[in-house]
């Protein structure tokens, strides 16, 4: 089984991709950034961008029939690895126990300070 997901309350995709794809009992979330879906704007500060990004991920996971509790793998891309500790502090707000596997890398992002994609189980 393969099904694409476009979250009604999620941010508009910046290109030709789905918010997520459900395959068997997994959901694969496309890379999400810090665009507020209600206003179309991004917060200025790094930690606010990280929070908005995870709120977007949460919205899409829920639209796909999953949740942050079901995330098994996170890929995080940040523009400045000297902010790794700040990223971790916000990350712990969303994954406060039994955190998923994670990779965090520095990346050049267009106008954003952070982007996150993930894989989660659909129950």
- Strand ordering within the main sheet: 1-2-3-6-4-5
Largest sheet descriptor = 6 strands, mixed
CATH architecture: 2-Layer Sandwich
Number of domains: 1
Distance between the termini: 14 Å
Taking pLDDT < 50 over at least 5 consecutive residues as the criterion, the unreliable ranges are none
For the record, the CATH class is Alpha Beta
Strand element count: 6
Structural class based on helices, strands and sheet pairing: alpha+beta
Which percent band covers the strand fraction? 25-35%
In CATH terms, the superfamily is RutC-like
Quote the CATH topology: 60s Ribosomal Protein L30, Chain: A
Order of helices and strands: EEEHEHEE
Quaternary state reads: single chain
Shape, per Cα inertia axes: globular
What is the overall pLDDT average? 97
Q: With helices defined by DSSP (H or I, 4 residues minimum), what is the helix count? A: 2
Q: What's the alpha carbon Rg, rounded to whole Å? A: 14 Å
Q: Level of helix content? A: 10-25%
Give a description of the structure:
The chain is α+β, with helices and mostly antiparallel strands. The protein has one domain (2-121): 60s Ribosomal Protein L30, Chain: A (2-Layer Sandwich), CATH 3.30.1330.40. The chain is built from 2 helices and 6 strands, in the order βββαβαββ. It has helices spanning 46-63, 84-94; strands at residues 2-5, 20-23, 26-32, 71-78, 101-106, 114-121. A 6-stranded mixed beta sheet has the order 1-2-3-6-4-5, covered by helices on one side. It is globular, with a radius of gyration of 14 Å. Belongs to the RutC family. Pfam families: Ribonuc_L-PSP. This is RidA/YER057c/UK114 superfamily protein. InterPro entries: RidA, RutC-like_sf, YjgF/YER057c/UK114.
């Amino acid at each position: 089984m393969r099904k694409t997901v476009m979250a009604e309350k999620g941010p508009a995709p910046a290109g030709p991709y789905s918010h997520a794809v459900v395959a068997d009992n997994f959901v694969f979330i496309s890379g999400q950034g810090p665009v507020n879906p209600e206003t179309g704007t991004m917060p200025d500060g790094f930690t606010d961008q990280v929070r908005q990004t995870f709120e977007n991920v949460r919205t899409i996971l829920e639209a796909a029939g999953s949740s942050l509790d079901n995330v098994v793998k996170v890929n995080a891309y940040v523009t400045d690895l000297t902010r790794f500790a700040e990223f971790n502090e916000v990350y712990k707000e969303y994954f406060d126990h039994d955190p998923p596997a994670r990779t965090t890398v520095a990346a050049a992002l267009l106008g954003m300070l952070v982007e996150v994609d993930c894989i989660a189980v659909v129950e």
